[in-house]
Amino acid sequence: MTTVAENIKNARKARGYTQKDLARLLQVKPAAVSAWEVGRNEPSIAMLRKIAELLGVPFDRLAGVETDNDTKDKPLTRNQKLVAYSIDPDISDEERRDIIEMVKIAMKNRRRV
After folding, report:
1. What is the pLDDT of residues 58-82, one digit of tens each?
2. Helix pair angle (4-14, 30-38), 10° resolution
């Protein structure tokens, strides 16, 4: 899973913009764009929407949000099934997938602290 910082940088480069170009279009300082791209700061939701629109990238992808389609189409790995099974052996694959997603979110948030 990529981070917001990586997503902004990749989308900017895909459009052929420099950090200065993006800053000018967003009416922010180039240092702000740089800080977003190295993960020192994150843009507000409103700014992230503006960046997504400007760069022609879906907001969810830029924000690093996995959609249901992203996760439901991928089969669970053996280890993921074992972890979910150890929690409750009588749950469906969909419920196991939800447990795995909750663990991923918890791990992601733990790193931010």
Report:
1. 888 888 876 545 545 566 667 766 7
2. 120
Q: What is the DSSP string of 19-48?
A: HHHHHHHHTS-HHHHHHHHHTSS---HHHH
In 38-69, which positions are buried (b, 16+ CB within 10 angstroms) versus exposed (e)?
Answer: eeeebbeeeebebbbeebebeeebbbeeeeee
Cβ neighbours of 21 (radius 10 Å): 14
How far apart are alpha carbons 42 and 30 in whole angstroms?
Answer: 14
How does DSSP classify residue 74?
A: S
CA 8/CA 38 separation, integer angstroms: 10
pTM above 0.90, yes or no: no
Report which secondary-structure segment, H or E, holds 77: none
Rounded to whole angstroms, how far apart are CA atoms 1 and 44? 20
pLDDT of 36 over the 90 cut: yes
